[in-house]
Amino acid sequence: MRNETQHFALVVELLSLSNEDQRRDKEAKLKLYSSREVKEYWIADWRSRKLEVYRREQSQLNLVVTLFSSDIISSPLLPGFSCTVNQFFPV
Fold this sequence. Notes:
The chain is α+β, with helices and mostly antiparallel strands. It has one helix and six strands, in the order E-H-E-E-E-E-E. The protein has one helix at about 20-35; strands at about 10-15, 40-45, 50-55, 60-70, 70-75, 80-85. The strands form two sheets. The chain has a four-stranded mixed beta sheet with strand order 1-2-3-4, with helices on one face. A two-stranded antiparallel sheet has the order 5-6. It starts with 9 loop residues before the first strand and ends in a 7-residue tail after the last strand.
C-alpha cells in the first residue's frame, strides 16, 4: 500500500485577486500547510509587491519577515539562492 501523504519543504503562493480568496490564502492554507509540515510558506502579494515569509517554528508556521521590492529573499532551504523580491513581479 502506498502512502499518499506528501510533504513539501517550500510552498510559494501568489495572493488571489478577491478578498475572500486572499483570506483563504492567509488563513486556511496557512493552517493546512502548517498541519502538513511544510517548512516554509511564502505569500507573494502582487499588488503591493511584497513577500510574506512563514517558517516552521516548533510545530507551526509563523510569519518571520515581510519583504518589499528592493529586499533580498533567501532561504536556508535553498542554499545559494537569493534574489530581490521585485524579481517575483515582472513589470
